[in-house]
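To: structure subgroup
Subject: Chain for Friday's discussion

All,

I'm putting the inputs and outputs inline so they're searchable in the archive.
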Amino acid sequence: MIFKTTMGWLAWLALIFLYLLSVAPIAHLLARGLEIYPPVNGSLCKKADAMVLLGGGRPRNSAELEGYQPTPLSLERIRYTALLYRECEVPILATGGGKRPESEMMARVLKNDYNVDVSWIETQSMTTRQNAQNSKKLLGNKLPDKVQTTVVLITHAWHMPLLKI
């Protein structure tokens, strides 16, 4: 009998814990620990060589709109890219591949909805690591020879594992 009572309380405790992890205030609080990089500074942004926009999920088809549309996460990143572009006027690289490359969809939305042109589109990457590697190669070939290239990376904090490229 004690075992059943203990298991019942443990089950309730687990459900309450899972619920707390799923509500926005707790999730935001936990995500703050992932934010090890500072937000974009306007004066530093203007000195960057490029902005790299990472996709936020496989595009979904929309019958009422023109073809494939961004996920809510991608749309947040697209909107922030347009905001930064207006402030910093730095060329944009959209990156993300797949059957329906995210980068092409993001470039279309930036142009049609925000009147912002993308300078480069990378369509081969399937993972965040590949986004970084392919973007580094592409920018290395397109930007003037420099000792160091500075980019503004547009993504979400939880999407930022520490990568060595």
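Points worth raising on Friday:
The longest strand covers residues 50-54.
Residues 59 and 100 are 7 Å apart (CA to CA).

D.
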